[in-house]
Fold this sequence. Notes:
Largest sheet: none
Number of domains: 1
Oligomer: single chain
Mean pLDDT: 90
Radius of gyration: 17 Å
Helix content: over 70%
Amino acid sequence: MIKKIKLTDVIIAILSLLLCIGAATFFQACGPKDDGSWMNCHWAEVTVVSLGAVMTAQGIARFFVAPKIRIGLDISHIAISVLTAVVPGILIPLCMMNTMHCHMVFRPAVIVVSVLIAAVSVADMILQARSEKKVTEK
């Protein structure tokens, strides 16, 4: 039996991959200091990349699991994306100056992508609940 791939599955996988790769490359936190040591924002970046990797793995797993398991993955994506959104600046402090790259680019990008992942996961849960309700009514 061929499983139907839903648009929400693809969107969640792409957004999770964007969070993982983007945090490590094009919206990364500040680089190393002149002496080679790292600022706190680097550790926020490492944490976000790690959480993004977990969500990417779950996003890929969505293509191969049953619909009821997908609801559990949605719940997990919501929890992890909320955690990811609060990592930079709340759980792990960023640089002292608000004009640094970590405040101006990294943190807003992480928050936006994390909120999008949570929103699509909530939408997928609602769609799943509606489709299951239609199946049980028939």
